[in-house]
Amino acid sequence: MAACHEVNQAGGSLPVERVALLRNRYTEILSEGEVLNPQAEKSGKRGRTRQSKATHLLWRLRTYADDVWRFASDPHVPFSNHLAEQEVRMPKVKQKISGGFRTRNGADAFCTIRSYLATLHKQGSNLFHALTLTFQGQPPQPPFGLTYTALGLGY
Question: What are the Transposase IS66 central domain coordinates in residue numbering (predicted)?
């Protein structure tokens, strides 16, 4: 989490030297974890030997270290996938509260409206104004065909 705060304070990516220092510490921590959670010995049976969840997590964190640390060098990559989780939350809450959707068409309509509003929100539109225009028969259209660069998101 400290690296996340450093990236936020830096207003973008961290200097290469700082990322290297943090990644070295990350590697040390993974090594300590591997000592505490060694791989299971081969059982002699065919196939891979089942590993503990901790061992598998350590393997994934080491194997995908570049992906884990991408947020530190690319300012367009968020520290977490919290935004993606938020997008899934509303339909799940709707399902939990009302017991689900009565029809497939109702679920599709709900998801279409949520997606439309989420897109407008991410583009900085006033949602109340957008809904007002929609009910007046003049729904605002999110700009299509724009590149990430045109939206100021890089890539």
Answer: 16-108
- Give residues with Cβ within 8 angstroms of 55, minimum separation 6: 34, 37, 38, 39, 40
Tell me the angle at which helices 127-135 and 104-122 cross, rounded to the nearest 10 degrees.
130
The domain spans of the chain are 2-40+47-73, 82-135
User: Using CA of residue 84, residue 87, residue 89, residue 95, what is the dihedral sign?
Assistant: negative
**Residue whose tokens read 């640390």:** 69
- The pTM is what? 0.53
Per residue of the chain (155 residues), what is the pLDDT tens digit? 577 777 777 777 778 888 889 899 999 999 999 999 988 887 778 878 788 899 999 999 999 998 888 888 877 777 776 666 777 777 777 777 777 778 888 888 888 888 888 888 877 888 899 889 888 998 887 666 555 455 555 43
Task: Say how far apart CA 140 and CA 103 lie, in whole Å.
Answer: 27
Report the run of H or E that residue 81 belongs to, with start and end: none
